[in-house]
Specification:
heterodimer; A: six-stranded mixed β-sheet; five-stranded antiparallel β-sheet
Chain lengths: 109, 115
């Protein structure tokens, strides 16, 4: 079992829908990252969280340290949001990034 | 400002050959990371440089992999000899830590296929 679990693995939704992607982890962390990987392969960092909530445009990321859980929300989803969304945690013991398997999101027009 | 660049974008080699991947971090970034995603699995950490020093190389799979960062600028990752299971996408990232904040900027990756 991976130390970082994401759900769902795949998600297809219609344009405009509210999207939630979940991430649970089992190790002690100093930070949690949400990243986006587009079909071309490039990875972009979206958020880095150590507590609470962050918002950037239509993207919202939350983290509950006690429950070891984070969510990434997309409001008013658009086809250009189609990508793989990856959760990665920075281990508090060795400071390495431990990666989730990613959630493949497809937004249909 | 130029982002993280990686070369080549794709490499197809035969088992037993040698391949060298290159990463040019963002200018001024002391931290440089190598990651790998093999088919169907999660991205895995390989190693971390701070300037020219290897801070953490615990993720390197075996001694067929050699990473260098001479002069603390660009880095190379050499695989010699390559095996079939080395196929995957190799990502490089760089960062500059400011206080407790660190954002890693990723390169586009090198897709390696070992036949």
């Amino acid at each position: 079992k991976n130390e970082v679990e994401q759900s769902p693995q795949n998600l297809t939704a219609q344009e405009g829908e509210f999207i939630t992607i979940n991430c649970s982890y089992s190790v002690g962390i100093s930070a949690l990252h949400w990243l986006q990987q587009h079909p071309g392969g490039g990875i972009v960092s979206l958020f880095m969280l150590s507590s609470g909530k962050k918002k950037h445009g239509r993207l919202i990321a939350t983290i509950n340290i006690q429950e070891k859980h984070s969510s990434l929300h997309i409001t008013a989803s658009h086809p250009r949001d189609s990508a793989v969304y990856i959760c990665a945690v920075r281990s508090s013991s060795n400071y390495q990034l431990i990666w989730g398997a990613g959630t493949k999101l497809i937004i249909k027009p | 400002e130029a982002g993280v660049t990686q070369f080549p974008s794709h490499s197809v080699i035969e088992k037993g050959q040698t391949v060298t991947l290159r990463c040019d971090p963002i200018s001024g970034h002391d931290n440089l990371y190598w990651y790998r995603r093999v088919m169907g699995k999660e991205i895995k950490f390989l190693l971390h440089f701070v300037k020219e020093s290897k801070q953490d190389e615990s993720g390197m799979p075996n001694n067929r992999f050699l990473a260098e960062r001479t002069g603390g600028t660009y880095s190379t990752l050499k695989v010699q000899p390559a095996e079939l299971e080395d196929s995957g996408v190799y990502f490089c990232a760089s960062s500059q830590v400011r206080g407790t904040q660190e954002t890693q900027y990723f390169g586009p990756g090198t897709r390696l296929l070992v036949l």
